Amino acid sequence: MAKEIEGQTLREYGIRKKRIRQRKKLILSLLFLIVILAGGIFIWKLYNKSYSNYEIINTMSNEGIMAKGYVRFGYSFIKYTRDGALAYDKDKKLLWNGSYDMKNPIADVCNSYAVVADKGNKSLYIFDRKGVVNNIETIYDIVNVKIANQGVVAVLMEADKDYYIYFYNKEGNEIIHMKNNVGNAGYPIDIALSQDGEKLVVSYMSVTKGKLSSSVAFYNFGEVGQNSTDGFVGGWDFDDIVVPKVTFLNNDRVCVFKENGIMLYAMSELPVELYQEDFNQKIKSVLHNESYAGVVLDKDENNPRKLLLYNDAGKRVLESDLDFDYDKIYLAENEIIMHDNLTCQIMRIDGRVKFKNVFTSNIDVFYPANNLNKYYLVNDSEVSEVLLLE
């Protein structure tokens, strides 16, 4: 006969204890799920809020030499002028101030490196987050420049109607150079450099007997292209159109913006066409970042102005009419920022408007200061940190 504990057998007691433990586990699991669900809802609401107002929470002077331009530098920015470049961190503190003397500076950024070059002349400066890394004096006049994430630069240059592309490492040593024969390939219109500094895309244009044609050439200077002339690994030709812009969205995706369409390529090693689309409406603007590429089609007699956005696989993720007559438009992470001189509108990737308002000061650029609700409003007078409010 089983022993009894206050009227219960040991077996009944064990079963009861087991049930209590199971109930405790179930209650704890439910509480954990509730906390996770509540946290998920809170985060979703936090990142999907709509804002209609704003507050200027901090301002610093930006007076002095007028900017030639600005480029994003992580969650901060670089201001470049004819006399130097200044980089700020996410708290608007000065990271560095690099001096130079340029007539027509142009700039490019890739992760922690930036380059500023004197277009039409022979000087360029490479910067990282600590300041000047090197000053390189080129052989020929600079037409365009791109930088990779380890400080390698690709420089398109011109001399006596011939074009050259030179690669330099951040120490200033020449890595690769190639000459473009205008008679064969045409005039290089734009260049794009991969993040690892090993792949290059060039857009060419030529006119032969009054007929316009364009081509896009893909080069790989890694192992794959070692047995090819100048690393050439593929190309596409186009009749009667111009290809004004080519860009790497990320290290393995290339976007080709034609004057009447868009094309996306995979290029881990060799180029493979993923998607192409031509438009009947005129392209007003193009925009891109590491994950998306887009076009704004201008309005005509039969169609409104329209924004089309594609992911890096070529899938259209957004089609939206635009009634805002912006001056500038660009992608920043999962947001589309557009503004004129005073009004700014921020649209999410799904087409919902996150924010729209009119500011009291001019807008040159409007960059995110975090991934939530803080932004930099920059003009030639001041840099303001803007907090969006509901």
Task: Label this structure with key terms.
single chain, 390 residues, mainly beta, four-stranded antiparallel sheet, 2 helices, 11% helix
Please provide a written account of the structure.
By secondary structure, this protein is mostly beta strands. The chain contains two helices and 34 strands. The longest helix is centred in the first third of the chain and has 38 residues, at about 10-45. It is globular, with a radius of gyration of 27 Å. The mean pLDDT is about 90.
Strand arrangement, major sheet: 3-34-33-32
User: What spatial form do the alpha-carbon principal axes imply?
Assistant: globular
Helix residue percentage: 10-25%
Beta strand count: 34
Summarize the structure.
With 390 residues, this protein is mostly beta strands. It has two helices and 34 strands.
